């Protein structure tokens, strides 16, 4: 057993716990988001002590972070007593997390393996969040499942895109047992994936249901009158995986400075060559030093995209990501 200290408050850390898990179980509030090492919300400095840090997606921590003893607490284990200084401070425009009941208003099958869930909050309740953030379903056994919110903050209903995962207990429940009008509990908002202030053109890269938070951001940008150039690249394996293309077509008609393309890695569609989505971005746009990139999808896609985008000139600090990891139970 080790002792952790943050802001003068001590807490116990078991060898089997990450520092974040230990802090939460002791009732200490630290910033966090995904709890899987992809969002960067729990970044902190280890002032004193020794730790072991698991591998994470490249780009979440910079070389400078590592040299300054900055770590992600959700992936860090103490190997001695430690003193921690949190780097992520609460901003005035951030919204507090809350747990609330929701009702399933509508279930819509969007393609062969993506279900749209529309959730309604209780009368008089509203959920304030930044476009791009996510929520967690709180299951009966206390387990949680995270899904990005696809609706804009001004929308009345919460929209989720749930992909059916082979062997995934919760996603199988969604597809086979979840009923309209059923009541569930969620906690939100969570996450560090949202639009940053800038005047640079934006590239949005979505793998599969990684489209959900990007849909939220683009709709929010449109309603707020953001005039920055937007490029949207959506990656799929085959054409049958495409969904909500009508949403993108509507954006093409109504949003100035907006371009979008669907990329397929395993099928030629309308004469378009097969490609990985990140490679198509580089082929089309070349040097990326003048862009901000928002990338959402599987961790492997984000890892490769980050590496090759930086090689194409992207400033590492202009790459923002949300990696989707899938629970099997």
CATH class wording of the largest domain: Alpha Beta
What sequence of helices (H) and strands (E) makes up the elements? Answer: EEHEEHEEEEEEEEHEEHEHEHEHE
Residues in helices, as a percent range: 10-25%
Q: Give me the CATH fold name of the largest domain.
A: Rossmann fold
Broad structural category: alpha/beta
Notes on the protein architecture:
This protein is an alpha/beta fold. The chain has three domains: 2-86, Ubiquitin-like (UB roll), CATH 3.10.20.30; 98-190, Elongation Factor Tu (Ef-tu), domain 3 (Beta Barrel), CATH 2.40.30; 202-323, Nucleotide-binding domain of ferredoxin-NADP reductase (FNR) module (Rossmann fold), CATH 3.40.50. It is built from seven helices and 18 strands. It has helices at 19-25, 63-67, 169-176, 211-224, 245-254, 277-285, 299-311; strands at 2-6, 9-13, 43-48, 51-53, 70-72, 76-78, 82-86, 98-109, 114-120, 134-138, 144-148, 158-163, 183-190, 202-207, 230-236, 258-264, 292-297, 319-323. The strands form four sheets. The protein has a six-stranded antiparallel sheet with strand order 11-10-13-8-9-12, with helices on one face. The longest helix has 14 residues, at 211-224. It is globular, with a radius of gyration of 20 Å. The relative contact order is 0.14. The model has no long low-confidence stretch (mean pLDDT 91). Residues 97-196 form the FAD-binding FR-type domain. GO terms for molecular function: 2 iron, 2 sulfur cluster binding; oxidoreductase activity. It holds the Pfam family NAD_binding_1. InterPro entries: 2Fe-2S_ferredoxin-like_sf (IPR036010), 2Fe-2S_ferredoxin-type (IPR001041), 2Fe2S_fd_BS (IPR006058), Beta-grasp_dom_sf (IPR012675), Cbr1-like_FAD-bd_dom (IPR008333), FAD-bd_FR_type (IPR017927), FNR_nucleotide-bd (IPR039261), MRET (IPR050415). This is CDP-6-deoxy-L-threo-D-glycero-4-hexulose-3-dehydrase reductase.
């Amino acid at each position: 057993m080790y002792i952790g200290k943050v802001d003068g408050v001590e807490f116990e850390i078991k060898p089997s716990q990450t520092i974040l898990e230990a802090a939460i179980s002791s009732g200490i509030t630290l910033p966090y988001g995904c709890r899987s090492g992809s969002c960067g919300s729990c970044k902190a400095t280890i002032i004193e002590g020794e730790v072991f840090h698991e591998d994470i997606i490249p780009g979440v921590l910079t070389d400078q972070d590592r040299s300054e003893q900055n770590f992600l607490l959700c992936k860090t284990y103490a190997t001695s007593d430690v003193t921690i200084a949190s780097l992520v401070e609460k901003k005035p425009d951030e919204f507090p997390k809350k747990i609330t009941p929701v009702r399933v208003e509508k279930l819509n099958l969007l393609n062969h393996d993506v279900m749209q869930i529309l959730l309604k909050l209780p009368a008089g309740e509203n959920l304030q969040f930044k476009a791009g953030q996510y929520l967690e379903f709180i299951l009966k056994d206390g387990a949680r499942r995270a899904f990005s919110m696809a609706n804009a903050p001004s929308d009345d209903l919460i929209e989720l895109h749930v992909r059916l995962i082979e062997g995934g207990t919760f996603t199988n429940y969604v597809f086979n047992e979840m009923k309209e009008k059923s009541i569930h509990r969620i906690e939100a908002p969570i996450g560090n994936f949202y639009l940053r202030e800038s005047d640079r053109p934006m590239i949005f890269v979505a793998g599969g249901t990684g489209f959900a938070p990007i849909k939220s951001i683009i709709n929010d940008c449109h309603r707020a009158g953001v005039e920055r150039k937007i490029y949207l690249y959506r990656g799929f394996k085959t054409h049958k995986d495409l969904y909500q293309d009508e949403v993108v077509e509507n954006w093409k008609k109504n949003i100035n400075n907006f371009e979008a393309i669907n990329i397929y890695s395993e099928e030629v569609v309308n004469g378009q060559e097969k490609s990985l989505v990140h490679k198509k971005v580089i082929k089309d746009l070349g040097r990326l030093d003048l862009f901000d990139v928002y990338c959402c999808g599987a961790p492997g896609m984000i890892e490769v995209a980050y590496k090759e985008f930086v090689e194409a000139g992207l400033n590492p600090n202009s790459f923002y990501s949300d990696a989707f990891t899938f629970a099997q139970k």
